């Protein structure tokens, strides 16, 4: 029954997302955390760029934000790879306001989106 409810809700959510016009930002600011040591770092990544955090390589395809509300919810398309593994640990959209919705699954590291870097130099903040 729950599966049926979820399968009926997903198409509605997809249509609702398409109704909000968005703009592409110049990059993203993410926060990476090493859960073993407690070390965290805010990392700025431009579109098409890859940055490293310890064993992770984090690549940004694009970051988007609502056109009518640049300080609104940011969402970024990322690929995150542990250098010790062949396959990416994460590939898809991360949403700043809902980091658990689409999260990196890693025993040691956590990564989440803080905001987009917009052309005006402002940021789309959601932390």
Condensed summary:
The protein has 127 residues and is mostly beta strands.
Which regions have little confidence, pLDDT < 50, spanning 5+ residues? none
- How many independent structural domains? 1
Range of helix content: 10-25%
Rg over C-alpha atoms, rounded to the nearest angstrom: 15 Å
Terminal CA distance: 34 Å
Q: Give the averaged pLDDT, no decimals.
A: 84
What is the count of β-strands? 9
Biggest β-sheet: count, sense, barrel?
Answer: 5 strands, antiparallel
Output the number of helix runs.
1
Order of helices and strands: HEEEEEEEEE
Specify the structural class: mainly beta
Strand content: over 45%
Approximate shape: elongated
Note down, in words, how this protein is organized:
- The chain is mostly beta strands.
- The chain has one domain.
- Helix content is 13%, strand content 46%.
- The protein has one helix at 2-18; strands at residues 22-24, 27-34, 40-46, 50-53, 56-66, 75-82, 90-95, 109-117, 123-125.
- The strands form 2 sheets. Strands 1, 4, 5, 6 and 7 form a 5-stranded antiparallel β-sheet that branches. Strands 3-2-8-9 form a 4-stranded antiparallel β-sheet, with no helix packed on it.
- The model has no long low-confidence stretch (mean pLDDT 84).
